[in-house]
Amino acid sequence: MSSPSAAGSPGPPAGVETNHPLWRLTTVRTGGNADFFAAPDSTELLVELLDWARRSGLRVGVIGSGSNLLVSDDGFRGLALKLSGDLSGIERRGTDVVCGGGARLPSVAAKCAGWGLSGLEFGVNIPGTAGGAVRMNANAYGGRLADVLHRVEVCSASGSATVEPAELGFSYRHSNLTDGQVVSRAFFSLKEDTTEAIKERLAEMRAWRRDAQPSGIKTFGSTFKNPDDSRADGRSAGQLLDAAGCRGLSIGGARLSEKHANFVDNMGDATTADVIAVMSAARRRVMEKFGVTLEPEVQVMGDVEWPDDWRQSGEPEVDQGDQGPGRGLDLG
Ligand SMILES: Cc1cc2nc3c(=O)[nH]c(=O)nc-3n(C[C@H](O)[C@H](O)[C@H](O)COP(=O)(O)OP(=O)(O)OC[C@H]3O[C@@H](n4cnc5c(N)ncnc54)[C@H](O)[C@@H]3O)c2cc1C
After folding, report:
1. How does DSSP assign 144-203, residue by residue?
2. CA 105 / ligand 1 centre spacing (Å)
3. The domain defined by 88-211 carries CATH number 3.30.450.40
4. 312 membership: H or E segment, kind and range
5. Which phi and psi angles does 116 have, rounded to 5°?
6. What are phi and psi of 81, to 5 degrees?
7. Which among 252, 267, 307 has a CA at the least distance from the CA of 284?
8. In what order do the strands lie in the sheet with 264-266?
9. Whether residue 129 has its Cβ less than 6 Å from ligand 1
10. The whole model's pTM is what?
């Protein structure tokens, strides 16, 4: 484990743990430990932690539900944060709903149905948090986050700021938030409807998902983004992987699902290296067959070894914790 920095660096705020296992905070269940870990339950504590990390020269990584996250087998040399308490609450204010960044979207969708508030039904099929959904610009059949997101509270080492969705640079599965910028609250504007009608839509969406995707496996959902490439001829990443013979492809404990080729399945004892290896083999097959370069949707925490051919075609557009200057949302 690395030390927070040179002599004289500030001690950690109360509640910071060391050498904390991260695999169980992810849905794919692979990866090592974080040097430092905390579960802040207030904006004040979150800002204090971010400020401590900055002054100590530590990288910061936020874990929501870990449903789109691959943690390095070597772990994370920095401070991993998981929002809790007030920062994972769900509160109704008229037809608005305020969610802590750590609030789970399926719970938000269920609560909104009970309140007779419509617009977040699509969250029932996204096993992530409100904060993770904002960072990833998550969408699903039946709805788009950006259509109902009203504003966001973002914390950084400098404090908290209110941000309009237009400032977040949303594009396909992307926002301009960087690792030191944590979504502590998301404000949604919804419409009134009957609980019955909303629950019916939730049931339809669940059924659609059950038919289309594997359930009960350890996965992080879509591995690769759908390509924006004419050679893909309108096909999704899953369709290209399927046509390239990747269904069921396995390396070590990691396999591409038989039901949906774009879903990695940890068959029990997979390591993150196995996952990277199967992703690389599949990506190579698609490149050879169609000339299409697939880019990962899954985010990476910690340092992983990408294969040579991957590096040669440019660094994958995955989050490796770079907090370099000039990137991302300007919080002033
Ligand atoms: C079975 C399955 C189905 C899925 N279906 C869909 C789908 O239909 N549509 C879709 O868009 N996605 C889908 N996903 C992917 C995933 O659920 C979404 O990307 C989700 O938004 C990730 O949220 P999370 O809280 O799990 O984030 P994590 O996986 O924990 O983290 C993802 C990224 O967000 C960052 N992050 C997390 N919380 C915060 C925060 N509070 N502030 C700032 N950054 C944060 C992390 O640092 C990381 O970079 C699916 C995943 C699975 C396993």
Report:
1. EHHHHEEEEEEEETTEEEEE-GGGG--BTTB-S--TT-EEEEEEEE-EE--HHHHHHHHH
2. 10
3. no
4. helix 308-312
5. 70, 35
6. -120, 140
7. 307
8. 250-251, 254-256, 264-266
9. yes
10. 0.93
HSE on the CB side for 42, CA within 13 Å? Answer: 4
Does 270 sit in the ligand 1 pocket, CB within 6 Å? no
SS (H, E, C) 43-106: HHHHHHHHHHHHHHCCEEEECCCCCCEEECCCCEEEEEECCCHHHHCEEEECCEEEEECCCEHH
For 203-234, write each residue's pLDDT tens digit. 999 999 988 888 899 999 999 999 999 999 99
CATH class entry, domain 17-85:
alpha beta
Q: Are strands 264-266 and 159-163 parallel, antiparallel or unpaired?
A: unpaired
User: For residue 3, what are the CA distances in angstroms to 7, 141, 155, 251?
Assistant: 10, 45, 24, 35
pLDDT in tens, 60-105: 999 999 999 999 999 999 999 999 999 999 999 999 999 999 999 9
Which of the four pLDDT bands, split at 50, 70 and 90, describes residue 143?
confident
Q: Among residues 61, 55, 54, which one has the least CA distance to residue 36?
A: 61
- At 155, the pLDDT band (50, 70, 90 cuts) reads very high
Contacts of 236 (CB under 8 A, 6+ apart): 226, 262
In percent, the amount of the chain with pLDDT more than 70 equals 92
Q: How many CA atoms lie within 13 A of 28 on its CB side?
A: 35
Q: Are 290 and 240 in contact (CB under 8 A)?
A: yes
- The class that CATH gives domain 222-297 is alpha beta
Measure 67 CA to ligand 1 centroid, in angstroms.
5
Q: Is the beta carbon of 186 within 6 A of some atom in ligand 1?
A: no
Q: Is 222 a catalytic residue?
A: yes
Measured N-to-C along each axis, helices 195-212 and 105-115 cross at an angle, to the nearest 10 degrees, of 150
Atom of ligand 1 nearest to the CA of 154: 42
CATH code 3.30.465.10 region(s) in the chain: 88-211
Spatial distance between the Cα atoms of 266 and 274, rounded to a whole number of angstroms: 9
